[in-house]
Amino acid sequence: MSLRVLSVVVAALLFAACSHLPQHPISGPGVERAPTKDYYRQLPPGQHALRKLAPADWPDFGPQIRQRAELIEACSRSLNYLGKPSAKGFFPMAGISQQQVLESVRSFRELLSSAKSDAEILASLKADFDLYQSVGCDDRGTVLFTGYYTPEFPASRTRTARFKYPLHSLPANHVKDPITGETLGRKRADGSIDPTYPTRRELLASGELDGLEFVYLDSAFGAYVVGVQGSAFLRLPEGEVLEVGYAGSNGRPYASIGKALIAAGKLKREELNLRNLIQYFEQHPEEFEPLAANNERYVFFQPGDGGPFGCLNEKVTALASIATDKTIFPRGAVCFLETTLPVTPGDTYRGWVLDQDSGGAIRAPGRCDVYMGVGDEAGELAGHTYAEGRLFYLLAKGATEVARR
């Protein structure tokens, strides 16, 4: 398994709970740390994560709209999600309704599609939209931006001496909620549902997954990484790239290997990165499975198509999709970020994005992840993304104002 490919897939293994999304790293090689702040500070009871700005306090949007075509496509994906009845269950959020976000994304897409120039778009923003800012980690708008990406791993459709660590397809008796995808249990022979599900260790030891092998990886730890990620692009020996995605899980709780190593005194928190984890398990291979067994969750896979997908079950777009805490921010909304990204070294990055993803390590108003794409180059960008900045949400004028604190 390539260390370069894996070197920045950190937070999901160290601190995050498993989801069906690519998880989001909080560090990477060569990244200098920002001053110590509590970027994971939670909102006080009753406080919203967004605060409306007066026009005089709006940020500088810059002279150009980056990736206009990609933004239009990303808007369409948000609208596809927002138009589904199931989306209503996640609103209102921060005082904002589903309809308000839908109308705002639609208006922004129409502006991007119809405007003859970037200058025309920028001139229309203050006339037709309101802007809200994340309160950040300090109630002053400070947000820590990190990057995430979709890695590629070597794999084989058939078991070989090298490729012998499987990913599994969903069992035929698996039952999940048709709307939320939440695991409900397993169907019994009489048609009733057994809400209990074996743990990861029990499933792998029982033999009941025999015949469900989906694809094989060349490392037990690599297969574990993909399971935590919940999706991946796998490069087969013949050169084909196979996309795999989340099909379901056993619904059991997740436990972090990183936290287990800290608790056991094996590594210090500041030493935790994927490179150190790989080195540790190379030196102590006998410790991997006992630690991995503490994680009861096991993820099942299916062929992917057109991904990678975010938490809206819509495709995410490099530099046009972000991940935030969906318990406090409105899903699918148009956002503007102002920070430092490695794609524009030395310059402040200002760009429009859609809020289309989430992550186990992104759980506060002071955290945001920027999606960087697929493969090694995207991984390098993600690993070098670690900077403070500001995050804003755009709503069409006429929408009900966000409730005050």
Structural account:
There is one protein chain. Strand 7 (about 185) and strand 8 (about 195) form a beta hairpin. Mean pLDDT is about 85; it is low at about 1-10, about 15-35 and about 400-405. This protein folds into two domains: about 5-25 and about 155-305, Beta Barrel (Ribosomal Protein L25, Chain P), CATH 2.40.240.50; about 50-150 and about 315-395, Barwin-like endoglucanases (Beta Barrel), CATH 2.40.40.10. The strands form three sheets. It has a six-stranded mixed β-barrel with strand order 3-16-13-15-14-17. A six-stranded mixed sheet has the order 5-9-4-10-11-12, covered by helices on one side. A three-stranded antiparallel sheet has the order 6-7-8, with no helix packed on it. Helices cover about 25% and strands about 25% of the residues. The longest helix is centred in the first third of the chain and has 17 residues, at about 100-115. The chain has helices at about 5, 10-15, 70-80, 100-115, 120-130, 200-205, 220-230, 255-265, 275-285, 290, 375-385; strands at about 50, 130-135, 145-150, 150-155, 165-170, 175, 185, 195, 215, 230-235, 240-250, 300-305, 320-325, 335-340, 350-355, 365-375, 385-395. The protein starts with a helix and ends in a 9-residue tail after the last strand. The chain is of the alpha+beta class and about 400 residues long.
